[in-house]
Amino acid sequence: MDYTNKIILVTGATGSFGSNFIRHFLKSHAPKRIRIYSRDEHKQADLINDEYYGGVLDGFIGDVRDKDRLRRAMTGVDIVIHAAALKRVQSCEYNPFETIKTNITGSMNVVDCAIDAGVEKVLAISSDKAVAPLNLYGATKMCMEKLIINANNYRGKGKTKFCCVRYGNVAGSKGSVIPIWKDLAAKKIPIVINNVNATRFWFDMKEVVNFATEVLEEMDYVSGGEIFVPKLPSVKIMDLFHAMFTTSDFSINGDRIGDKVHETLVLADEMKHTVDATDKFIIIPQDPHWEYLIKPKGVSCNGRPSYSSDSNSEFLTVKTIKERLEKIG
């Protein structure tokens, strides 16, 4: 796709995903403008003043809760990447009203404003927590997925196409276990492990933004309403620990509120309407209105078990984890 004359808006643009997506995207594409929409004026200023971005960024201070501001920011926009969210699980549990306002009401505003502005594509960033959610964050992400999927009906005769990407925790991202453990080690505090049997999918930030960019391209060839899920290797939490440290000194904290021992990216029930597209799964909307529309190419997954980190066919070894840790720094 040629982005030369396209204006892109990224909600949550100053967060980990948003800022990395913009940096990666500009390596291979030259859009007309990228509008960064977020609440943090200082981080916006840092991005806008960074010569790396070549002066193509426009800063819009705003919250996805503010529909009027969002509507103004979307005027003339061709593509929206919706990454704005409150995502810290424990914080969301203790601040449920605020979480719902941002993650659900904010997503409703994105849908409405995108349709009204005649946006071509909206790609929303979801999470494994949306799958059989155990916590409020996951429940709001599940609702966000439903809103985005059904926006393809809600739009009526509008042209906007809505899709989601769904993935697990990003290795090395803010608030994830790797920086937390590094911080504890630097302070000479024993490493805390919540559950020694835990497993996670491995997905680093570079892989995340690569995948999102690929999906953005692939949206030209689907109907809208699909959820794209990458195929990833798994890691055992204890293998990650041994890859990072030579010590065997750690304490067990127990599972936190809303934590899952393993990550699941596609439920067995979802497999009934999912296709295996070699390097990814594509979950097709379970709605009779989609029966006559374009179906993604791939092999039907009907009858397959859930795609979970504990039952995955590929696990990284301690050696491979060390190599990957060196890459992410």
From TrEMBL:
Residues making up the signal peptide according to the UniProt record: none
Name of the protein in its database record: Putative polysaccharide biosynthesis protein
Domain Polysaccharide biosynthesis protein CapD-like residues, every copy: 8-283
Organism: viral metagenome
Family membership: Belongs to the polysaccharide synthase family.
InterPro entries hit by this protein: NAD(P)-bd_dom_sf, Polysac_CapD-like, Polysaccharide_Synthase-Rel
Pfam families xref list: Polysacc_synt_2
Transmembrane segments: none
